[in-house]
């Protein structure tokens, strides 16, 4: 078999380099055309719902208080809420159903003033006079204010207008316009009449636009208080509402509303990692500094260059002695080897039975007497 010529090797090498360069170029184009998920993740910031961190570093996590819909075949954690929270209205004549940082578990329909798409996002509601009213769409934006947490639901059902606004609506519905009560018009006054009519129409449109802008919707403000009692579950209390029944206020007592330490995020260094880094840095400084001192100042060589060599050598000898003692002590509990028998420690001894011993003793006594 003949060896390939240098020219052929050079041509094959050039072809391989060209193919490799084309592959790298295609990879660069694909990477530039479609950014990686990691790059997009770094550019966009995500906020975890129902989690907040105050300016002084206190961390709050109310996710265990969220009522969730139980799924078939999925085992929920202990203490998970599967039903909505109920707040008694007492003298208001109705009770209020709500959830924390999520829509209500029990869905609602035919909500006053909301579209069918918004029904699934209702975070609090009540029923009065056979009608369902929303107190706002769900939200997970917790806001720490001092030692309390505040959560707000907005965009609920329209608020009832005051009595003055109702009277204005009745007047506008009758079509009465001030300065427009004319019984007769001459031919010369037709243009003035058209101008007045145009002005009245523009005023009506402006007034209607202003009324739309002034439309208020119900909202709910939930204040969380820290309750460290282990036997007390999360309790929701209805504080009250404004005279227009437009803004509702609630108070929630929960052990999860207490400030805690923020867990370290994946990829960041936690407390254990910081301690390990400090430990290894101190160990490196101790070893390197000790070796440098022992070698340059004390003029030691070999293992004696290590700092405190006699101390570490004594510890190593102590550990070896402990190991020998333990192994020798445990050897007594090992089973005997095959082929060995225990010594005979019976009363017969090496001379046979007791009769032989007695005869020997009598014989010796007779010889002694002689």
UniProtKB/TrEMBL annotation:
Annotated TM spans: 273-293, 313-334
Lineage: Eukaryota, Fungi, Dikarya, Ascomycota, Pezizomycotina
Acidic residues bias: start-end ranges: 187-200
Amino acid composition bias (Low complexity), ranges on this chain: 31-46
Key word Signal present: yes
Designated name of the protein: Vacuolar sorting receptor
Major subcellular location class: membrane
Domain MRH: start-end pairs: 48-260
Signal peptide boundaries: 1-25
Biased composition (Basic residues): 205-216
Subcellular location: Endomembrane system
One GO term (biological process): vacuolar transport
Swiss-Prot/TrEMBL keywords: Disulfide bond, Glycoprotein, Membrane, Receptor, Signal, Transmembrane, Transmembrane helix, Transport
PROSITE patterns in the record: MRH
Chain residue ranges for the region called Disordered: 26-46, 152-216
Cellular compartments per GO CC: endosome membrane; Golgi membrane; late endosome
UniProt cross-references to Gene3D superfamilies, sorted A to Z: Mannose-6-phosphate receptor binding domain
């Amino acid at each position: 078999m003949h060896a390939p010529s240098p020219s052929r090797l050079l041509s094959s090498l050039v072809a391989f380099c060209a193919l490799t360069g084309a592959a790298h170029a295609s990879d660069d184009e694909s990477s530039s055309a479609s950014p990686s998920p990691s790059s997009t993740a770094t550019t966009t910031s995500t906020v975890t719902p129902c989690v907040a961190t105050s300016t002084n570093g206190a961390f709050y996590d109310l996710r265990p208080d969220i009522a969730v819909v139980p799924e078939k075949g999925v085992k929920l954690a202990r203490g998970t809420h599967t039903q909505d929270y109920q707040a008694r209205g007492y003298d208001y004549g109705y009770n209020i159903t709500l959830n924390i940082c999520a829509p209500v578990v029990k869905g609602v329909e035919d909500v006053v003033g909301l579209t069918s798409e918004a029904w699934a996002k209702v975070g609090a509601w009540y029923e009065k006079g056979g009608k369902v009213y929303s107190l706002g769409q769900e939200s997970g934006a917790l806001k720490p204010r001092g030692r309390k947490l505040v959560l707000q639901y907005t965009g609920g059902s329209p608020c009832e207008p005051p009595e003055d606004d109702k009277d204005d609506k009745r007047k506008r519905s009758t079509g009465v316009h001030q300065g427009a009560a004319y019984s007769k018009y001459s031919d010369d006054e037709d243009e003035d009449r058209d101008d007045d009519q145009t002005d009245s129409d523009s005023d009506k449109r402006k007034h209607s636009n202003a009324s739309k802008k002034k439309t208020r919707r119900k909202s709910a403000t939930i204040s969380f208080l820290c309750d460290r009692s282990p036997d007390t579950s999360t309790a929701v209390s209805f504080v009250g509402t404004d005279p227009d029944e437009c803004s509702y206020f609630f108070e929630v007592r929960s052990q999860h509303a207490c400030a805690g330490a923020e867990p370290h995020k994946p990829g960041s260094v936690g407390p254990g990692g910081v301690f390990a880094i400090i430990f290894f840095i101190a160990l490196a400084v101790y070893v390197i500094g000790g070796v440098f001192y022992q070698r340059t100042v004390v003029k030691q060589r070999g293992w004696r260059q290590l700092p405190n060599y006699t101390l570490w050598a004594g510890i190593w000898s102590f550990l070896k002695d402990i190991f020998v003692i333990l192994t020798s002590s445990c050897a007594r509990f090992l089973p005997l080897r095959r082929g060995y028998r225990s010594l005979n420690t019976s009363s017969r001894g090496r001379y046979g039975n007791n009769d032989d011993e007695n005869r020997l003793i009598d014989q010796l006594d007779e010889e002694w007497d002689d």
